[in-house]
Specification:
Length: 83
């Protein structure tokens, strides 16, 4: 029995050694492209939505009793503070 087993192993080893690997189809070489890098100015912009909160808030109120009928200054005009 040991002789049969040894002959089976020898036969399978011989048959395995005789097998040639299947030939792979030859692939063409890959096409390679390239570009030349050039320096150029690029303007970076970003539009970011959001809200802001003020650092300090001041309220402007009249220091008189009654109703203000007509302001004596224009809107966004500079005024001098009373000393």
């Amino acid at each position: 029995m040991l002789r049969r087993f040894g002959s089976v192993i020898a036969l399978s080893a011989a048959l395995t050694a005789c097998n040639k690997a299947p030939e792979q189809p030859k692939m063409p070489p890959p096409v390679v492209t390239f570009i030349t890098v050039q320096e150029e100015p690029v303007q970076l912009t970003a539009e970011l939505p959001g809200r802001t909160s003020p650092f300090a808030v001041s309220e402007v109120r009249p220091q008189i009793n009654g109703i203000v009928l007509k302001p004596l200054t224009q809107e966004f005009a500079r005024v001098r503070g009373a000393a």
